[in-house]
Write a structure and sequence with these properties.
Layout (H helix, E strand, L loop, with lengths): L1 E10 L2 E6 L2 E7 L5 E5 L9 E6 L11 E6 L5 E6 L5 E5 L5 E6 L3 E7 L7 H13 L3 E7 L10 H4 L4 E4 L8 H8 L3 E5 L6 H8 L25 E4 L5 E4 L13 H6 L25 H7 L5 H11 L4
Parallel strand pairs: 3-7, 10-11, 10-13, 11-12, 13-15
Antiparallel strand pairs: 1-2, 1-6, 2-3, 4-5, 6-7, 8-9, 14-15
């Protein structure tokens, strides 16, 4: 019997798949792990010339829709991975594509007001990654009981949705549930900002592991070690993901990154040169907007940092 399901969790030992009313432990059909090179002759039947291990991307990620063959003993074998509609990815070791989660329609980007304090340069990177995949971002300013969420006002002024929350003070939890209801969302952000604590608070009994921020380094500790997709009792799905201390883009050009800054869009295309990189070129409309105060100097510097080593 072959059924369709959704991947809830990926580990070295296998895959957990939600299929109808069943939760199946599955393995992967061997040929899905390989990249095939086929013959192209018009006069001969198509045949495999070479089969190599797939090393440049994740074959399966949390959120993938799959077709599973289920044996009489209840064991599942994933035989097909259906095309992804969206993917939230980053560059991993040696440029390999690391898919954090796929087939989502919303990214809840969680940063803390304190412990650890907001790093706007890193938040900019998460926003660009969401914009590049046309995913709707929701900025969650967590731990607002420890410090004012005022530093997040910069993003609200750009049109981003910003939601202050606090598990300790019970702030914003009902609003967060409403924004997750009926959606397929991913919780992403650095370690220690409280992603798992927020999910435990909005769905009591979930029991995700949490830890305090280090008192010496003031950095988060990894408690979520692998992504997992969680069905919400009030409707929808949410992926809890490991904290990311570094976030490198995968195959984004300077032009694509510029288009992911919403405040740039009104003036993009108005530069003197069509191939303007908005760095040292004369007649740059972006630099003129920065000088006139219409674009934040900090955000502009963030763009330059992201594109500094790109060609």
């Amino acid at each position: 019997m072959t059924i369709e399901g959704i991947v809830l969790r990926c580990t070295r030992s296998g895959y957990t798949v939600h299929a109808g009313t069943q939760i199946l432990q599955c393995t992967l059909r061997g040929n899905l792990k390989k990249q095939f090179e086929f013959s192209t002759s018009a006069s001969r039947a198509r045949r495999v010339l070479r089969a190599r291990p797939e090393v440049f991307r994740d074959v399966i990620a949390v959120g993938d829709r799959v077709r599973v063959h289920v044996s009489h003993h209840g064991h599942g074998v994933i035989e097909e991975v259906l095309p992804r509609q969206t993917s939230f990815s980053r560059a991993g070791f040696r440029g390999k594509e690391r898919t954090v989660v796929c087939n989502i329609d919303q990214v809840a980007i969680v940063f803390a007001c304190a412990e650890p304090r907001l790093d706007p340069w890193k938040l900019d990177r998460f926003l660009v990654a969401a914009e590049a995949e046309s995913l709707e971002p929701l900025i969650v300013a967590n731990k607002c009981d420890l410090n004012t969420p005022e530093p997040f006002n910069e993003y609200a002024g750009l049109g981003y949705r910003v939601l202050p929350t606090s598990v300790v003070a019970g702030i914003g939890l009902e609003e967060l549930k409403e924004k997750l209801k009926g959606r397929v969302s991913a919780f992403v952000g650095p370690s220690g900002v409280g992603k798992s604590s927020l999910l435990n608070a909005i769905q009591p009994g979930l029991g995700l592991r949490t830890a305090e921020v280090g008192s010496v380094t003031h950095k988060g500790r990894h408690t979520t070690t692998t992504a997992q997709l969680i069905p919400l009792r009030f409707g929808g799905w949410v992926a809890d993901t490991p904290g990311l201390r570094q976030f490198e883009f995968l195959d984004l050009s300077p032009e694509e990154i510029a288009d992911c800054f919403p405040e740039f869009r009104d003036v993009l295309g108005s530069c003197k040169f069509d191939d303007c990189r908005h760095a040292s070129e004369p007649g740059c409309a972006i630099k003129e907007a920065v000088a006139a105060g219409r674009i934040s100097e900090r955000r502009y510097q963030s763009y330059l940092n992201m594109t500094a080593n790109l060609t």
